[in-house]
Amino acid sequence: MESNDLRNSFLQMSGMTFGSIVEADRRLRVHGAWQRQQKKVIRDAEVWRRYEEDYDLQKKGTSTSDPTPAQVVENGPGGKAE
Fold first, then answer.
1. What is the pLDDT of residue 82?
2. pTM for this prediction
3. Cα end-to-end distance, the chain, whole Å
């Protein structure tokens, strides 16, 4: 009889362990997705901040130190007309 109790306990603990592993994996996946979403929000906020900064500078009549794509095409990658 004692052998059956040990076997039942082992099976019950095995199931509980497996369930815990599955739950931990699910939580890690959710956390990873949350982290990726937060990084995307931060990245998008930085792009928007740079856009607003560039817009404000253009509105004031000054330009940024970085050349625009049209300037690169016109002057070449080195900044000198080729």
1. 46
2. 0.54
3. 93
